[in-house]
Structures are given as structure tokens and as C-alpha cells.
Amino acid sequence: LFGGRDKKRASESSKEKLIATPILALLDFSEVFEVESDTSMLGIGAVLMKEGRPFEFFSEKLSETRQKWTTYEQELYAVVHALQHWEHYLLQNEFVLHNDHQALKSLNSQKSVNRMHDRWVLYLQHFTFVSRHRAGHQNRVANALSRRNSL
């Protein structure tokens, strides 16, 4: 997709943007949490935020089996895994879930795909959240975390 120079420039730009991100926010339960998640062929990434400021980061390499999943399954896995990671913050608090996969906007109204999907949707029903689509180019931090070379 990118030549060597373009790839290096894109990588350096991503690093600079992560470094330039505002200092981590202090936890304030009176404000609404925001969760951004994303997936790539390499892994998943997510960021927990308050008022657009990062509070915590999370990323994980996808196993070979998970790398073969559909994009929908990978994106849903990223959401579920991020919520499991931050369950202690999110279970009792409303939050906004940002994701760049359109199909995840209407999780509860989708027909059953398989048992794994059913378990994940059932798990998500324990949370109170609004799901909002965010274009990939706006989902920068989670996108960068899911594509880290060190995964």
C-alpha cells in the first residue's frame, strides 16, 4: 500500500500524535466515559477517555485464529475485550462507545450469528451505553494502538 518512505513517514506521524496527546485525564465519575475501539489484521486497540482526553490505553495482538475472523467479529471482539478490561469503571456508569464499524451501531437488533456472538451481545447488555459510529480517520488513537508493530 505504502512505499518505504511513505510507511516510515506515516509511522513517525502516528508516533508524534500519540506523544503529543494531552496528558492523561484524572478520573472524575461525574463526567461521561468514552470508549474508542478499533481492530486491524495485527491486533485490537482501545482508549478510555473523559471529555475527549485519554484516561487509559489498551491493545492486544490477535491470535492466528482471530486474525481469520471476519472484520465484524474482530471489531465486536475489540469492543467486548475493551469493556472487559475496563469493566470496573464502566459497569456502573453510562458511556459512549465509538467504533468505525457501521454494523456495530445496532448490536441489539441483529439476528443471532453464532454462540460466540450471542455471548458477546448478552455481555454487552450489562452495560448502559450509546454506540456511535466514528469514521476511521477520526478514531486515531485506537486505530494506532491496533496497528502497533510491537504487538
From TrEMBL:
Does Nuclease show up as a keyword for this record?
Answer: yes
What the entry lists under Pfam families is as follows: RT_RNaseH
At the top level of its lineage, which domain of life is listed? Eukaryota
Key words of the record: Endonuclease, Hydrolase, Nuclease, Nucleotidyltransferase, RNA-directed DNA polymerase, Transferase
Q: Where is the Reverse transcriptase RNase H-like domain?
A: 28-127
Q: Does the keyword Transferase apply?
A: yes
Query: PANTHER family, per this entry?
Result: RNA-DIRECTED DNA POLYMERASE (PTHR35046:SF9), ZINC KNUCKLE (CCHC-TYPE) FAMILY PROTEIN (PTHR35046)
Q: What is this protein called?
A: Reverse transcriptase RNase H-like domain-containing protein
